[in-house]
Amino acid sequence: MGISSAESITSVLQETRTFPPPAEFTAAAHINSEAQYQDLWERAKDDPNGFWGEMAAGLHWFKKWDKVLDGKMPDAKWFVGGRTNVSYNCLDRHLTTWRKNKAAIIWEGEPGDTRVLTYQDLHREVCKFANVLKKLGIKTGDRVTLYMPMIPELAIAMLACTRIGAPHSIIFGGFSADAVAERNNDAQAKLVVTADGGWRRGKEIELKNSVDASLEKSPTVENVVVVRRTGSPIVMEPGRDYWWHDLMHEASADCDAAELDSEHPLFILYTSGSTGKPKGVLHTTAGYLLGTMLTSKWVFDLKDEDTYWCTADIGWVTGHSYIIYGPLANGATTLMYEGAPNWPHDGRFWEIIEKYKVNIFYTAPTAIRAFVKWGDEWPNKFDLTSLRLLGTVGEPINPEAWMWYHHVIGGGRCPIVDTWWQTETGAIMISPLPGVTTTKPGSCTKPLPGVVPDIVTKSGESLPANAGGLLVMTQPWPSMLRTLYGDHERYVRTYFSEIAGCYFAGDGARRDADGYYWIMGRVDDVLNVAGHRLSTMEIESALVSHPRVAEAAVVGFPHDLKGEGICCFVTLTGSDGDDQMKQELKDHVRKQIGALATPDMIRFSNALPKTRSGKIMRRLLRDIAAGREKTGDTTTLEDYTVLATLRASEE
Ligand code: WTA
Fold first, then answer.
1. How far is 643 from 376, CA to CA, in rounded Å?
2. What's the CA gap between 152 and 229, in Å, rounded?
3. Which of 35, 117, 538, 613 is the most buried (most CB within 10 A)?
4. Is 395 in the pocket of ligand 1 (CB under 6 A)?
5. Mean of the per-residue pLDDT values for the chain?
6. CA–CA distance, 480 with 470 (Å, rounded to integer)
């Protein structure tokens, strides 16, 4: 990881506004005083076994654990010897209560079609699909790829996998066939569940066609189950492909939840790293479930009467943890929307909030910046007074976007929880507690109970208040990842080798004099584009796979809407590049990885700035991409003329 420049991160953000929680919010909140928070936090820090043991009593266990925590990072194990099941905790245990007929999922399709599944409905469908999986030969431990639109069948498939202990690997619908094949192969997936297509901004995303193309390169997949969503014509290969509705029609609704070990693999989710192929982050059963259940309750202050909406796609970790597992484990009503925020008009989200009287709304800063741009007239057209709590995740939120969110969406009355966490952490780590924490726009505030972070130099020394450094975790927590699928050595190297004894996953941050954390972004070569992590290295490999590209370096640059844009410096073989070539390269990357990785800028240059040892000096490229006239230290640069040429290589 390239953390060499992180020794001295200078923070330029000076924010002094503060927002205490409204008294009426505090009065009704699950955690409602600073003293209560302090007490929980201290107890969790000093006696993790006692604290987490007590918390875990809130789960259903087939067999109670023998030991709360065994070992230390990187190989800490939680609730050792215990047996439980995620789908049982999310479904069965609500069926013996009044929640049986409560809405578990309220779903709205992009074209405006709707479905509501009660806990009983969801349980029945999950049991049936679990039986379908078994009939297709899926056994405990087999990996199942879910490459689906945001439809209820995705939630059903996830919970069915957890019911029989088959780890799922969800692939975001925006990824290309090649990306699907790569992930299928890495996970050695046996089955793919998909749909003919899904709706996005009025257009169809052709999922089944991509699956067909991916299967030419992923031989471990034996069968494909296809949900009919759009009704478009697709090819069904006899003996390999089955319609969801045909299989479900014959399936029994009786399926006991498997009694799984606490550490049984729950799911794999691929995320970008700074080097090499995507990393298969593996989460296990009990610890992940406990983390998402507790944080949903604490951070979103979930109550039975709430309609809760997280706008993420389930293809990302936010959707896993905070559309499905956390809310359902709490018996909450979770809203799921299939499509785009600006279809058929720029006020679609606000229309949905008004329609379902949404109380808690969780979205991303990149979306908020787009809403600001689309204009206040859209939210102002709808009644948003049902909202009582707002949240954000995915990247640092700029204070002005925070203020807009607070005033225009929250009507000045809703606390905002700016939640910091990662695919690897499984659950929210640093966040306000809405009934307790006085918020400061742009800060994710303080660590939750059980989370013990620090800000350190790259040699691991703790830094004083307001000094920028590396954000690390000094103690294990139950919902942390356990390995990178199939590559434990890479897991240890990536997260635990930079700072001895600590977990480090790439963010720079500072802590102010009040103990509030301010995330400053990634310090490795990972971009955060519209809240999604993309590896510069993967985009570079995609570029270099084009026959005309000799060398490529990819860096991020500040982008109004996306937070970070993708800028590619490319050296071609043969003749000079032109606009047509730029377009061709953009299309090429899009085909290789998916639309989310489409470059914003391609700049041609006959050489890239390198050190004498041949390393590309990305920090200089970042300056150039951002349009900064003066670049940092160039003394190690091999050829000075390169910089002038690069500056002239405008987009
Ligand atoms: C960034 C998403 C600032 C951060 C849950 C982290 C944030 C990466 C915040 C993880 C936040 C996430 N403030 N930055 N509230 N939340 N990030 O794995 O750089 O897709 O390392 O998980 O997003 O992205 P991931």
1. 43
2. 11
3. 538
4. yes
5. 93
6. 18
Distance from residue 173's CA to the centre of ligand 1 (Å): 20
The pLDDT, as a whole number, for residue 6 is 41
pLDDT at 520 over 80: yes
| DSSP code for 137 | T
Spatial distance between the Cα atoms of 192 and 220, rounded to a whole number of angstroms: 10
Residue 277 pLDDT more than 90? Answer: no
Q: With 70 as the cut, is the pLDDT of residue 636 above it?
A: no
How does DSSP assign 165-224, residue by residue? Answer: T--EEE--TTB-HHHHHHHHHHHT-SEEEEES-EEETTEEE-HHHHHHHHHTT-TT--EE
d(CA 483, CA 360): 33
- Pocket lining: 421 vs ligand 1, CB cutoff 6 Å: yes
| Domains in the chain with CATH codes | 23-85+263-335+350-449+479-507 (3.40.50.12780), 90-258 (3.40.50.12780), 546-648 (3.30.300.30)
Residue 97 CA to ligand 1 centre (angstroms):
36
Share of the chain above pLDDT 90, in %: 81
pLDDT at residue 88 tops 50: yes
Ligand 1 atom with the shortest distance to the CA of 444 = 15
Residue 273's alpha-carbon distances to 316, 342, 496, in angstroms, are 15, 31, 14
Nearest CA to ligand 1 atom 15: 420
- 612-635: pLDDT as tens digits: 767 778 888 998 999 887 666 676
Place of tokens 């059963």: 285
Between the CA of residue 501 and those of 41, 263, 461, 589, what are the distances in Å?
A: 21, 22, 12, 38
519 alpha carbon – ligand 1 mean position (Å) = 9
How many H helices and E strands in the chain?
22, 30
**What pLDDT, on the 0 to 100 scale, is given for residue 1?**
35
**What distance in Å separates the CA atoms of residue 432 and residue 439, rounded to the nearest whole number?**
7
User: Averaged over 290-301, what is the pLDDT?
Assistant: 98
Beta bridge partners of 77: 70
pLDDT digits (tens, 9 = 90+) for 412-454: 999 999 999 999 999 999 999 999 999 999 999 999 999 999 9
